[in-house]
Amino acid sequence: MAQCKPFKAIAFDLDGTLIDSVPDLAAATNATLAELNLTGCSEEQVRSWVGNGAHVLIERALSFALGEAVEAQRLEAAMPIFMKHYEAHLQRHSKLYDGVINVLEQLHSMGYQLAVVTNKPYRFTIPLLDAFGIGHLFTQVLGGDSLDKMKPDPLPLNHLLQQWQLDKTELLMVGDSKNDILAAKAAGISSIGLTYGYNYGEDIGLSGPTAVCDTFSEVLAHINDSQKVMEQ
C-alpha cells in the first residue's frame, strides 16, 4: 500500500508544551504586584494560574493579592504594567523542554506543516520562538490576540484548517492544558495531551485527549506509530 501520513499538519501549544515559561511569568507577575504595592506570589501559584492568557493570569494574581474579586477597571489598569515587566523579563529564565528541538526538526524534515497556537500575546510569542532558534520551523503562529477568540474556543484551529485547506483528520493538536484538548474536540480534530505542563493541577487524561504522552519525545513516537497503522 502507498505510504500516507495520518496527519499533514501539527499545531503546538507554547507555554507548558514547548517552553517552560513560568519562571519569567512569575518574575513579571511579582514585579507587577510590587509596583502596585501588593503582596507577591510564588512560582507554584503562577503555574496554577497560566493557560488562559495574560488577562486571566493577572486577574488571578490580583484576586490572590487583594483577597477578593478584581474590578474590571483595576484589571485593565494593571495590564500595561504587567506587559512592561514581562517584556523586561522575557526569556531570562525560560527554557525549552527536553526533546523539543530534536522532535520539531524531525517533523519539519518529514514534511509536516507546523504551527504554534498559544494564548500568549503574539508580541511575546515570536521573540520567544526566535530566541530558542525554533521560529523558522513554524509556518503559522497564532497568539491569543491574533484572532477574535482563543483556546478553548476552536477558532484558531478552524483557522488553520481553512488556511491550509485540510480535512479535520489531517490536523493534530499537541498541548498540556485542558484548553488545548477542549479546542481540539470542538474543532473535531485529534489531540495529544502532555502530562508535564500546566493544567491547573488536573490530570490531562481527564479531558479526554486522543492520546497522552509523558515526554515531548513520545509525541514523535506516537505520530510514527500512527503512520505505521495507516500504511498497513
Automatic annotation (TrEMBL):
Alphabetized UniProt keyword annotations: Carbohydrate metabolism, Hydrolase, Magnesium, Metal-binding
Catalytic activity: 2-phosphoglycolate + H2O = glycolate + phosphate
Function according to Swiss-Prot or TrEMBL: Specifically catalyzes the dephosphorylation of 2-phosphoglycolate. Is involved in the dissimilation of the intracellular 2-phosphoglycolate formed during the DNA repair of 3'-phosphoglycolate ends, a major class of DNA lesions induced by oxidative stress.
PANTHER family given in the database record: PHOSPHOGLYCOLATE PHOSPHATASE
Keyword field contains Oxidoreductase: no
Superkingdom classification of source: Bacteria
GO BP field: carbohydrate metabolic process; DNA repair; glycolate biosynthetic process
Residues annotated as binding Mg(2+): 13, 15, 176
Gene3D superfamilies, A to Z: HAD superfamily/HAD-like, Putative phosphatase, domain 2
Designated name of the protein: Phosphoglycolate phosphatase
